[in-house]
Amino acid sequence: MKLAAIIAVLGTPLAAQTFNAPTGCEVYLTVQGRDCTVDNHFTCAADPAGEQHRASFDENAMTYLGAIDEETQWINSTHIIGGHSEELGSNPLDRASFSELIATGSDSYDFKTNSAEVGQTRYVGVDRLTGNSRKVDGVTLEETAYDITAYAGDGSVLWSSKGREFISREFRIFLSGKSTVTTPTDTFDTDGTPVQFIRPGEAGFASVKPKFGCGAMMSSYEVIQ
């Protein structure tokens, strides 16, 4: 799915109550988070095998739209609140690898993205399985400990984050957890832990309306969106 087609989805009206994926694409999972967010995960028939997309919403509008490949590398991302899009640069120094994470329990990465609006950004970090797991709505989530730093093109630190997230082997995706984010001027905590997984045919599937934690969001979260 081309980036131009992805960006065209940004006009999706919240009044519709449900997310309509682009032509040739199909939503397969809706995840309600603790932080007043709802994510709709979808795939497109024309995409390379293993590629998938996520559209995220808060209580007012779509906030993020992005794609990952079969190894969960960020292929492209559109940060609506931040007002920029970025695409994965060529020849990453250390590619992110979901396969390595589940095989060895740890995966490091070091890659760059390119953006017409903000220039080049370098992301360096590591994910490690903690050995802890839980089930939410029948979905097994394995906990990870992560640490990531984003650098501007001049080498200065844009932000860093560390905390606990989750992976789903079934869906081959990462899911938010509890994080501490540090910018040059602020430090704040977020908690996007999944509360509900909704599959096709179930009430609330493809919803664009968050159900949990609304009214208590921190505006600082906009820094990395």
Give me the secondary-structure category: mainly beta
Number of strands: 13
Radius of gyration: 17 Å
Give the strand line-up of the largest sheet.
Answer: 12-11-10-9-8-7-6-5-4-3-2-1-13
Largest sheet: 13 strands, antiparallel
Instruction: Name the poorly predicted regions.
Output: 217-225
Verbal overview:
- It is globular and about 45 Å long.
- A 13-stranded antiparallel sheet has the order 12-11-10-9-8-7-6-5-4-3-2-1-13.
- Residues 217-225 have low confidence and may be disordered.
- A hairpin with a 4-residue loop joins strand 1 (25-33) and strand 2 (38-44).
- It has helices at 3-8, 98-104; strands spanning 25-33, 38-44, 52-57, 62-68, 74-79, 84-88, 106-115, 119-136, 139-151, 157-168, 173-182, 187-191, 194-198.
- It has 2 helices and 13 strands.
Short characterization:
With 225 residues, the chain is mostly beta strands. It has helices at 3-8, 98-104, and strands at residues 25-33, 38-44, 52-57, 62-68, 74-79, 84-88, 106-115, 119-136, 139-151, 157-168, 173-182, 187-191, 194-198. It has a 13-stranded antiparallel β-sheet.
Task: Write the topology of this structure.
Layout: H1 3-8, E1 25-33, E2 38-44, E3 52-57, E4 62-68, E5 74-79, E6 84-88, H2 98-104, E7 106-115, E8 119-136, E9 139-151, E10 157-168, E11 173-182, E12 187-191, E13 194-198
